[in-house]
Amino acid sequence: MSTSAQNQVSCSGKISETMQVMVKHKGCGTIGGSGKASCGSQAGIANLPIEIWEKVKNHPCYSEEAHHHYARMHVAVAPACNIQCNYCNRKYDCANESRPGIVSEKLTPEQAAKKVLAVASAIPQMSVVGVAGPGDPLANPDKTFRTFELVNKLAPDIKLCLSTNGLALPDHVDTIARLKVDHVTITINMIDPEIGAKIHPWIFYGHKRYTGIEAARILSNRQLQGLEMLTARGVLCKVNSVMIPGINDQHLVEVNKAVKSRGAFLHNVMPLISSPEHGTVFGLRGQRGPTAQEVTALQDSCESEMNMMRHCRQCRADAVGLLGEDRGAEFTMEKIMAMDIKYDEQARKEYQAKVEKARTANLVAKQEALARLASASSEIKVLVAVATKGSGLINQHFGHAKEFQVYELSTSGAKYVGHRAIHSYCQGGHGEDSKLEIAIGAIKDCHAIFVSKIGGCPKAELIKAGIEPVDRYACEFIDGSVTAWFQLYLDKVNEGKINHVERVDAAVRSNALTSAA
Amino acid sequence: MPFKIIASQCTGCSACETQCPNLAISERAGVFLIDPEKCTECAGYFDEPQCVAVCPVDNTCVLDAALPRHREPA
């Protein structure tokens, strides 16, 4: 065994211990059918079988903590779809948009495999390859599964996942299990066909087009059946739901219970994206999307039942890189053809061992910060924003950030609650002033913003808006820094040096929850 | 009258291609075409024309009035 391999073994051994501590702390049991889990208690992800924990720990979409460290890519090999959704329109591509169903170029399975090798060589922390459209992967089973076969053969260390509407899922469960697909995401917006009919005008099933309530009933039955079949085979399932105010927003609590009881591991409630210029039925009809506060409130009301995903960026069907930082433009087919690709699994492992080292250090810092905070007792909760480029560090300049990560701080530590995109897409030519205004508006509910660096003018404007710009933790870990800051904040409140005031709601625009990148 | 695809409306999604029982549909530069020689309006295979049923854009797979019908409408 080489030295580096030895290092890696000892490193990952240490990690699993730290992880256990971390997951115990995080604690929300999600095993299907086990009834309501006690959130925040010792009954946490730690009661998951270790092989399931192994499956999620490096998946940026399945683990919030992992999304700072690991990257994913989607390969757009699946253009066809078998259902119609009122929130979808795959006709237009805008390079700056982050929306499911959007791609710049469709790929053949062979091109996709080549792209995977190119990206995995350039981004060694790329751990997961998914097929997520632009149509439905299982309406294109040959292309999807051929892609997976090729990736399995050429890059066996990369995990596979797919995202489906579930209509064809029961027919493909065996293939999914055979090809060692680790994770499946099913988009389930309803379990009540009456509601479904308002979201999905038609489906194509068994060589026929069905419409209305009949279509929604078939779709819902197939989705839930597929979910049950997958979880029975040990394939990890996440459920995505699009939150549409006035249509399914109240109903999603029922959906949450239904999918939890069938073994779904994680529920991701996503805000509807609808602007008239997207050309979707909802967009043209003026159906609004939910505000950030509405999404958070729904996520909170579902969280007592199961883990909720809060770091989703609703990315494109050809997204590449860390969540929130799309590098797709670097990997067009034209550029890939010109690349000299050397897929080196060992080099990837060595790089990932370094990532794990940083990740462990981050977790240790988090534990230490928590331990220090444990002595403080206060009811105060504040939100703070962080500018980060990944790796769990405060490492981005205020002016360079395209989004801020928002954490809720209390004496039980820092909890990730979401991100705020800070410039609207497809609207070039903003002056700096208006950009600053948008950025400040998006985090108006926060007490502080953590950055690696910030200029004098935005600093003054932030202070004027009552948000403290904090740059003294530059390039340090997020968790440790924000809790350290919070401790000082509490001290100052206790000593009467400052008055704690509740912040107002953020001015969150309809599309502010979706990253522009 | 075989079916034809209105190219200006076609999104190139390819959903119709795999559903056609006659293998009459193919792609040319991102746009799909129906070979009128092969199209049977799905007669003998399915109750409804598959390209029409699966096409995500209404009125994009339509009967080509310039050609004789394969079968009389029911």
From TrEMBL, chain A:
UniProt domain Radical SAM core: residue ranges: 67-316
Cofactor(s) needed by this chain: [4Fe-4S] cluster
A GO molecular function held by the record: 4 iron, 4 sulfur cluster binding
The protein's annotated pathway: Cofactor biosynthesis; Fe-Mo cofactor biosynthesis
InterPro entries named in the record: Aldolase_TIM (IPR013785), Di-Nase_FeMo-co_biosynth (IPR003731), DiNase_FeMo-co_biosyn_sf (IPR036105), MoaA_NifB_PqqE_Fe-S-bd_CS (IPR000385), Nase_CF_NifB (IPR005980), NifB_C (IPR034165), rSAM (IPR007197), rSAM_sf (IPR058240)
Record carries keyword Metal-binding: yes
Gene3D superfamilies in the record: Aldolase class I (3.20.20.70), Dinitrogenase iron-molybdenum cofactor biosynthesis domain (3.30.420.130)
Pfam families: Nitro_FeMo-Co, Radical_SAM
PROSITE patterns in the cross-refs: MOAA_NIFB_PQQE, RADICAL_SAM
Function: Involved in the biosynthesis of the iron-molybdenum cofactor (FeMo-co or M-cluster) found in the dinitrogenase enzyme of the nitrogenase complex in nitrogen-fixing microorganisms. NifB catalyzes the crucial step of radical SAM-dependent carbide insertion that occurs concomitant with the insertion of a 9th sulfur and the rearrangement/coupling of two [4Fe-4S] clusters into a [8Fe-9S-C] cluster, the precursor to the M-cluster.
Stored PANTHER family: FEMO COFACTOR BIOSYNTHESIS PROTEIN NIFB, FEMO COFACTOR BIOSYNTHESIS PROTEIN NIFB-RELATED
Similarity-based family: Belongs to the radical SAM superfamily. NifB family.
Protein name: FeMo cofactor biosynthesis protein NifB
The organism's taxonomic lineage, starting at the top: Bacteria, Pseudomonadati, Pseudomonadota, Alphaproteobacteria, Hyphomicrobiales
Gene for this chain: nifB
From TrEMBL, chain B:
Cofactor dependency: [4Fe-4S] cluster
Gene Ontology MF terms in the entry: 4 iron, 4 sulfur cluster binding; metal ion binding
Keywords per UniProt: 4Fe-4S, Electron transport, Iron, Iron-sulfur, Metal-binding, Transport
InterPro entries (alphabetical): 4Fe4S_Fe-S-bd, 4Fe4S_Fe_S_CS
Domain of life, source organism: Bacteria
Domain 4Fe-4S ferredoxin-type: 1-30
Name of the protein in question: 4Fe-4S binding protein
